[in-house]
Design a protein that fits this description.
Elements lengths: L11 E4 L5 H9 L4 E5 L11 H9 L6 E6 L4 H11 L3 E4 L5 H10 L4 E7 L4 H10 L4 E5 L19 H10 L4 E3 L8 H8 L3 E4 L4 E2 L2 E2 L1 H16 L4
Parallel strand pairs: 1-2, 1-8, 2-3, 3-4, 4-5, 5-6, 6-7, 7-8
Antiparallel strand pairs: 9-10
Helix pairs in contact: 3-4, 5-6, 7-8
């Protein structure tokens, strides 16, 4: 089995850095299959208070996935977050070893675990192979955890999509593509990487707020690429 679909299907898309219930509802109206809620991070945009996460998560329809972005590396702390917010997907923005991911899975049956892989170089391919042995899915982003203040997402940078394509081809779990996606480049990104889904934050915002016109264009470009002749 491959992470690349055998035939062309429209990738799912997730709107991250949701700050209000209105933003969540706007994303869902435009076809988002998932929304991302950002808890404490060492750097980057989109962080909201715990009570706001709890309020928004409680109002999301059950057919829409709620991703909690966490920077925690402690299994018990992550389980506590999930129980507090009632979300259905944990996005591990920092790297956890496979045994910790498997422990999370055993402690939270029915909750999906998505490991973020920061594509800094070709080493990301081996990291992805290892993580895919334990996580339900991967998300490829453009942070840099090696920095003194860890970058765990929200950089607005793209990374090497050739590496991302290789990861999609070599792992057997769904792969989400993030990192600097905008209405202007998402079509090319889908064409080159063929991910299971795409994840966007700053690329559909203006002055920090979710921009309906940018969101509409983003979705339109995905549909155009998906319906174009296969390469």
């Amino acid at each position: 089995m491959s992470g690349v679909p055998a035939f062309r299907t429209e990738p799912r898309f997730k709107v991250c850095c949701i700050a209000t219930l209105d933003e969540a509802e706007l994303a869902i109206r435009h076809g988002a299959s998932a929304v991302g809620l950002v808890s404490h991070m060492p750097s980057g945009p989109g962080v909201i208070e715990d009570d706001r996460i709890e309020e928004i998560a409680a109002r999301i329809p059950p057919e829409i996935s709620t991703f909690l972005l966490t920077s925690s590396g402690e299994v018990d702390a992550i389980v506590e977050q999930q129980q507090k917010f009632g979300i259905d997907t944990i996005q591990l923005c920092d790297s956890l070893p496979p045994e910790a991911i498997l422990e999370l899975r055993s402690m939270m049956p029915g909750v999906s675990i998505v490991q973020v892989i920061h594509v800094v170089g070709e080493d990301a391919i081996d990291q992805a192979r290892t993580a895919a042995r334990a996580a339900h899915a991967l998300l490829l982003d453009s942070g840099d955890p090696s920095k003194a203040v860890k970058e765990l997402g929200g950089t607005g940078r793209i990374h090497d999509w050739a590496v991302s394509r290789t990861i999609c081809e070599e792992v057997e779990v769904p792969v989400w593509l993030a990192g600097g996606l905008t209405p202007d480049n998402v079509g090319e990104a889908v064409h080159r990487v063929r991910p299971f889904g795409v994840d966007v934050c700053s690329g559909v915002r203006t002055d920090g707020r979710l921009d309906e016109e940018k969101l509409r264009r983003f979705v339109h470009k995905i549909k155009i690429e998906t319906n174009s002749p296969a390469p």
